[in-house]
């Protein structure tokens, strides 16, 4: 690539081969030209930039086989531009398409994935519920009842990204017959399916999260994901996307560091740039240390994926560690910008707010800690 990211001190970018680097550069150029200039405005108005969907389609990223390193790098690049747009892409191409790819039959993959890869159909992923977040594996309350060649779904979902405009939503429900969690692809016009936008968010405001209500929603057996038999199958998808969130956290850190560094060089107090003061340099170096250690962690994570040695504790530790370091970095960046850090004009305020959502979704720090703790001790701390 022609230009390194400002915070890539150890040149992890050099690990991309020439073809991968070209893809990453093309994505970075698109994000810089199309996403960055409109991000603050759409974030302030909590509106999604639908005009950009064609641009995402033209990039040809969804559904295309590529190395885990490149997939992670692209997630980082998107979050470096805007965490909301990274989340939009992750929900569509990761959670929704990943569910169909992992748990769908060959016929189902052929029926849905090509149109989704071209962004002709947008996907959503409905797992979290109003009363079930961290305990959704055992506490999932949305039900599915078999009725001949159809299933009847009833229940509620919450915090479902893309759901206000998604063409299809992967809904996870508990089969009343065997008490196991199964997946269903539900079209937006299905009777009994309603999605209501969640208002007044302070993070990821561009993402159109929704409350979903399913009332005697009839779904044909042909739209039940044929290889989703228990929550263990759902967990396979979460394992993959959790690592993507770790990469997104690195992207947010990189953006925060970049903003703070540029500001420290330009902002003058006491007759000199604030970047010349020891305390400011200390914060910048702490930020760079967090970025660098987190980048090293997620890069190694992709190597384990490629080697077929990728386990739940690997993605759980990555998600818990990087999002915690991210929280520190955006806070220090805001500190360097002082009062200017709380207005959108200087960008960092958006990253500070959005970091709070990344810190919580795809498993809280506490839940991911217990996943890793169980792996290293052999003892479960889950209730």
TrEMBL record:
KW Oxidoreductase (keyword) present: yes
Question: What biological process terms from GO does the record include?
Answer: fatty acid beta-oxidation
| Domain Acyl-CoA oxidase/dehydrogenase middle: from-to ranges | 124-217
Write down the InterPro entries for this protein, in alphabetical order. Answer: ACX4-like (IPR045008), Acyl-CoA_DH_CS (IPR006089), Acyl-CoA_Oxase/DH_mid-dom (IPR006091), Acyl-CoA_Oxase/DH_mid-dom_sf (IPR046373), AcylCo_DH-like_C (IPR036250), AcylCo_DH/oxidase_C (IPR009075), AcylCoA_DH/ox_N (IPR013786), AcylCoA_DH/ox_N_sf (IPR037069)
Transmembrane regions listed in the UniProt entry: none
Supply the alphabetized keyword list.
FAD, Flavoprotein, Oxidoreductase
Tell me where in this chain the Acyl-CoA dehydrogenase/oxidase N-terminal domain is found.
18-118
**Which part of the chain is the Acyl-CoA dehydrogenase/oxidase C-terminal domain?**
235-376
Q: What's a single GO MF annotation on this record?
A: flavin adenine dinucleotide binding
**Cofactor(s) this protein cannot do without:** FAD
- At the top level of its lineage, which domain of life is listed? Bacteria
Family in the record: Belongs to the acyl-CoA dehydrogenase family.
Write down what this protein is called.
Answer: Glutaryl-CoA dehydrogenase
The taxonomic lineage of its organism, from the top, reads: Bacteria, Bacillati, Actinomycetota, Actinomycetes, Micromonosporales
